[in-house]
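Hi support team,

I'm filing this because I wasn't sure whether my run with zinc ion finished correctly. The job status page said complete, but I'd like someone to confirm that the output block is well-formed before I use it downstream. Pasting the exact inputs I used:
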Amino acid sequence: MLLAATAAPPSIELQVDLREAPRRRFHATLSIPVSPGPATLVYPKWIPGEHGPTGPLVDLAGLRISAGGAPVAWVRDAEDLFAFRVVVPPGATRLEVSLDALEPAAGTSGFSSGSSETPRLALLSWNHVLLYPKGADPRTLQFKAGVTLPEGWSFGTALPVARRDGARVQFEAASLETLVDSPVLAGRHITSTALGTPGGPPHTLVVAADSPEAAVVPPEFKAQLDRLVAESGALFGARHYRGYTFLLTLSDFVTSFGLEHHESSDDRMGERGLLDPPNRPLVGGLLAHEFVHSWNGKHRRPAGLATRDFQEPMRGDLLWVYEGLTQYYGQVLAARSGLQGGGGFTEVLAQEVGEMTAHAGRTWRPLGDTAVAAQLLYGARTDGTAWRRSIDFYPEGALLWLEVDVLIRQRSKGARSLDDFARAFFGGVNGPPSVRVYLLDDVLAALDAVAPNDWRGFFAERVDRVRAAPPLAGLEAGGWAYDFAPEPGPLAKASAAASGATNLSASLGLVLSKESTIVDVVPGSPADGAGVAAGARLLGVNGRALSKERLEDAVAGSATGVPVELLVLDADIFLTAKLDYQGGPRHPALKRDTARPDLLGAIAAPRVPPPAAAPAPAPGRN
Ligand SMILES: [Zn+2]
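And here is everything the job wrote out:
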């Protein structure tokens, strides 16, 4: 006899109306299969990749629940505010839910709960617009989702499309995990560019911008991304996605950040990210970082970050692997792909050393604590950053993994490198998204297989204990020394131009915002010694009203013995601060130490031969 096949559990249907996205409102309706009796629906709280309880619950509005056309009362759990309790009436098999997500206007910080819409584009993070039954497994709970686009808009996403009927797009059924991992970028001005070479899963760059010209992908940039795809293949040896889509938003009115997903990334920069050549290395660095996460963070994930559902708290103690190693390989792959120009690799490392030197909080807080406390530090104020420390597991993590890479290269006399670890740990077999969790012991064992060492002791010293100085051993053994230059490098200049900030951490010991607010003061620096406090406004320098040029002149003049005197307004009190500083302009840089082989050069060298350059045109006659 035949057993009846088990029927697949019914799917949740979700329709999101994006037609009011230009006004920063998403309208959603859900149809959720249920059984009669008490039930609890939950709103996603812990958002993967954000490493914190960042689901924008406060912006959930217009919540109405019904069954068979009759309203069903809901009550919020008084302890777990993300949970809504209902009693499903007898005979009902589905709950109909309607809700709105209020999306913030420009100027909001945060990740996907930050500013994500303008009148011309929108980034839909599905976790903003859904509830799901408490206790359900996001890996198996199926959603049939669709969107209605504003008139004349197009879209990009990693979600496979089932059908499109004008403005209505229906996606293929996907698990809740995949849905939340697959945002939709929509907009009026949108381009889609195929990347990479034929063979293997497809790679696509989707750009939505506030103007049509800003969404155009320059051919050189596309060629560099083609190389990024090739270099990632050479590094990891396998891909864990059906296809990969970079969703790049270019707008001055969305929050700038990157958020990794398994088959896509949500990458956001200012409108002129591709239009202005100096900005392209910044965009390239962001895309490379988020792409590496498809392997490190999505496919391989620390057990503490691979939670059962979106309600279970995450543990960030291994973020120095998840983010720190991604930071390192994002920089390495950007260098190998040509995305950051010739000096980009050493410039970024110099910036990281400079920042980690300025973070005097390292004298009380071990690196590992910045990872455990990530959910606090991501949202911390900017004043006090140097003494509090910040999400230092990114920049210091990169320096730490550089040290590991250099150590392996030296111990194996150049036969092996961290690339061998990356291939063994993150590679494997090509296929659709899969998650393999790990513990610290797994990382140590995989490193030991590449180069035997007391890795446990190595990381305990650098991660768990307080260290007065950032890890420089990788740089130094790699043939470079930390130094200062009178001018910032091109990447630092482009960042400063984009943010309007002035970073004088390595000279006077302060950082100024675009509005001349003192964002932070480095403990032990000349500004600190003169009593300057973060949060005050800088109004004047050396007896005259502040201008960028006068401040630069004053810093330069310090080297000739002219003291630097700052006029500061703190609350409603004017203060004059005389700084004990004679060092002139100083910006983090690396200097080549020719007594040692250039291992940084070897690390940054392409593994895939770049395409032969086109022959230069013959010189013209006129
Ligand atoms: Zn990251």
